[in-house]
Specification:
About 20% of the residues lie in helices and about 25% in strands. It is an alpha/beta fold. Strand 3 and strand 4 form a beta hairpin. It is globular.
Length: about 80
């Protein structure tokens, strides 16, 4: 709905149901939530993995909170 009205949306993912979040302007999750979309194979770190995640959600940016290690963001400008 927000996309149709040209309103930016930021979602904090909590459930491994990607369909709920597709098209949000920004997707934010912690390490555990983000890695769940990669079958818990680890946090996506390479630009290819992050671009794949960004494409999966059709989003402009991915933000990952990493606890004591801070926050990481990936968008069209990179990591």
């Amino acid at each position: 709905m927000a996309n149709k009205l040209n309103i930016a949306s930021i979602v904090d993912i909590k459930v491994q149901t990607k369909e709920r979040y597709i098209g949000a302007t920004v997707i934010k999750g912690n390490k555990k939530e983000i890695t769940s979309f990669f079958n818990n194979a680890g946090l996506p770190r390479t630009e290819t993995e992050l671009q794949s995640l960004k494409d999966m959600f059709m989003t402009e940016a991915i933000i990952v909170t990493e606890g004591k290690d801070g926050i990481a963001m990936f968008n069209d400008n990179g990591y």
